[in-house]
Amino acid sequence: MKQFAGFLLQERKAPSTRWTLLLSLVSIGVALVLLGVVFSLYGISPIKAYQTIFTGTLTDWSGFSAVLQRTIPLLLIGVGLVMAFRTLFFNIGAEGQLLVGATAAAGVGLFVPLPDPLTLPIMLLVGFLAGAAWAFIPALLKLKLQINEVITTLMLNYVAINLVNYLVQGPWKGKTAYGYAYTDPLKDSAWMPTLPGTNLHWGTLIIAVVFAVVTGLILGRTTEGFRMRILGESPSVAKYLGMNTLKTTLLVMLISGGAAGLAGVGELTGIHHKLLDPLQLSLGYGYTAIIVAWLARGNPLGVLITAPFFGLIFAAGDVMKVTLQMPFQIVDVFNGILLFLLIATEPLIRYKLVKAPEQTPIHTTRETPNGR
Amino acid sequence: MDAENWLVGILGRAFAFGTPLLWAALGETYVERAGVVNLGMEGMMLVGALTGFAVAHSTGNPALAILLAGVAGAVFSLLHAFMTITLRANQYVSGLALTILGTGATGLLGKAYEGQPLLDTLENISVPGLKDIPILGPMLFTDQSILTYLGILIGVLLWALLFRSRMGVMLRSVGENPKAVDAQGLNVTLIRYAAVVFGGFMAGVAGGFFSVAYRPSWTQGTTGGVGWIALAIVIFGRWNPLYVMLGSVFFGALYVLSFRLQEHISPELLNMMPYLCVILVLVLTALGKKGSGGVPEALGTPYRRGER
After folding, report:
1. Which of B93, B271, B275 is opposite residue A294, by nearest beta carbon?
2. B23/chain A closest Cα distance in angstroms
3. CA–CA dist A313, A74 (Å, integer)
4. Helix axes B226-236, B188-208, angle to 10 degrees
């Protein structure tokens, strides 16, 4: 136990929501201050930068719709990753799962003749299944052969990027694309409706919100959710109880990959309407969603707050690029700083600050010989 | 061109392309031997690459550039060391954060260097005498970067240190059973810090190789996923510097092949090859062993004194 300025750092029985929220907000605040330092080093006044971001994203409808539009993939993938992380599966492959979902849906939209009303639902279904299948490979390799999922999910990201590149430059290259690397546009029935004057494909947004709520209910209220929580919190207990951990982990990975696949279908049918350069299709949503999930601290409903926050960060990146000619990588800088702060403050969640007693502080011998 | 020349050509270039893989993977081997995983490889390499380019660009001294690329990688890796060793944060997430931050920071700072030519690059050299050996001469000792020769020497040295010296025993023990090392009065924290920083230096040099020697230029994200392959090579090489050297040449050869076969097969499909091969190799490695041969026992777990 450590004491400073009349306060004592005490271990808690269970982390409290308020304390966790406070720590998260402090982390975000510190990250914003550090980002301000980066702005000034870059020769831009931080106050002006934050003003520009604020007016560019939150004061008018077109700016705000851009925030919501960026929120959609982050929400879908973020919820899926919360599930994956809770069962101790480090799915770093959402980027690839998104791309594969978009690709499979594009394949259906371009080459499979379907009645108009069925086109979008089937594309969504196929996209979900493709993303899930892409996640199934590393899940199976981890469960059956104990192969580290971080490496395999990442490798599959690069495979997916090259797969999309191959298709748009080769067999799927559009007749109308001339020198460019993209497919023909999807037919009208495969376009996700958007709010007028924006790229906000609200259908996917609704799906994403429903997905977050349903996932929260599954995790909190069902037996399967209980299994998932045990598996994440204490794998040895799960084993002792004779749980089928294989089935639970596979289920979680299918949901996680499928959600990323859905996000890909959303980007494809709501914004681009054709398969194109993978780096334009996903702007690193799969990686940013890791931070979205981490900030939500294992709660699918928490993603309903953290995903819009990062949607705002992405939209801010666009504003910085257009208005202040700053490279978009400023978003990565912020994300990196914030992720470091989040994991650095993680241990504090298990502690609370209490007023130290009047008497001489008690030193327990357990922590003091740490010697650092 | 006859088959022998073709093969010698491929393998020669494989050594060249395997060089950054070799430096990065050798460094990570020591990091993981000490019980720490650093997934920040891409980030550290990019920081090294940008530093190397900037130094070479402003001083015209490529050797200094490579050295400072390593130093920059080492300094950057301190962040990971502090997070995972001192604060005992999740090693995977910290490594990812290092990659995200490194990618972002170099993209931001490197903007001014994009498209700039580099006049003083690290020249390739041939080793007099050795280059006349049949097959091996043209393959390995002709027109290669000095970093290729150095990398191979260091690889052998690191192997000897790891398995034939007291220091190696100490390092391996920290990764296997930190408690026992602590009980002997050695400083686990210090050894782990040293390993992580060493890994950062090696990754930084690997990055510098890209921007100062291999294709002397700076572009955003110039390492293009090579860092992840280096991480896989460490697993493939069973945390043994000699196998890691083999793995680096093997994956270097894969890259070269993917350039050479472009006339026949689409380059995008060929670009998938190294990544698919990583998975394939991991599967074969997993199938080929029973138990967890080679994995440091305490890999990925923070060490806390006084905990039972």
Report:
1. B93
2. 19
3. 11
4. 130
pLDDT tens, position by position, A136-175: 999 999 988 988 898 899 999 999 999 999 999 989 998 8
- For A80, left (φ over 0), alpha (ψ -120 to 50), or beta? alpha
Q: pLDDT tens for residues A294-330? A: 999 889 999 999 999 999 999 999 999 898 888 889 9
- Number of other CB atoms surrounding residue B260 within 10 Å: 14
What is residue A5's predicted lDDT score, i.e. its pLDDT? 65
Which one of A38, A326, A332 has the shortest CB-CB distance to B103?
A332
Q: What is the pLDDT of residues A1-45, one digit of tens each?
A: 556 666 777 777 677 888 888 999 999 999 999 999 999 988 889
Report CA A176 to chain centroid distance, whole Å. Answer: 34
Contact B279 A165 (CB under 8 A): no
Neighbours of A144 (CB within 10 A): 12
Task: Give the whole-angstrom CA distance, residue A132 versus residue A100.
Answer: 9
Answer yes or no: do A151 and B87 touch at CB < 8 A.
Answer: no
* DSSP-derived 3-state class of residue A254: helix
Query: What distance in Å separates residue A249's CA from the closest CA in chain B?
Result: 19
Q: How far is B170 from chain A (nearest CA, A)?
A: 21
CA closest to B37 among chain A residues? A150
Question: Which percentage of chain A shows pLDDT scores above 90?
Answer: 58
Looking at every residue in chain B, the average pLDDT score rounds to 89
Residues B228, A155: C-beta atoms closer than 8 Å: yes
DSSP codes joined into one string, B168-232? HHHHHHHHH-HHHHHHTT--HHHHHHHHHHHHHHHHHHHHHIIIIIIS-S--TTTTTTHHHHHHH
Contact A162 B272 (CB under 8 A): yes
Residue B37's nearest CA partner among B229, B298, B247 is B298
In tens, the pLDDT along B236-295 reads: 888 999 999 999 999 999 888 888 888 888 888 888 888 998 899 889 888 876 545 577
Tens of pLDDT, residue by residue over A257-298, are 999 999 999 999 999 999 999 989 998 899 999 999 999 988
Q: B275, A145: Cβ pair inside 8 Å?
A: no
Six token digits for residue A161? 């990027």
- Edge-to-edge, what's the strand order for the sheet holding A3-4? A3-4, A7-11, A351-355
List CB contacts (< 8 A) between B108 and chain A. 38, 42, 326-327, 329-330, 333
For residue B36, what are its two tokens?
């720490």
Q: Quick one: closest CA in B to A334, which residue?
A: B101
Closest CA to A258 of A105, A120, A364: A105
Smallest Cα distance from A115 to chain B, Å = 33
Distance CA A319, CA A315 (A): 6
Distance CA A163, CA A180 (A): 17
Nearest by CB to B108, which of A90, A159, A333?
Answer: A333
- Would the CB atoms of A329 and B90 count as touching at under 8 Å? no
Structure-token match 């009065």, residue found: B185
β-pair type (A351-355, B124-125): unpaired
Q: Do B90 and A343 touch (CB under 8 A)?
A: yes
CA nearest to A331 within chain B: B104
Supply the Cα-derived Rg of chain A in whole angstroms: 23
Comparing alpha-carbon positions, the chain B residue that sits nearest to A146 is B286
Using the structure block, give the residue that is written with the tokens 């599959």.
A156
Shortest CA distance from A140: residue in chain B: B283
Instruction: Give chain B positions within 8 Å (CB) of A287.
Output: 96, 100
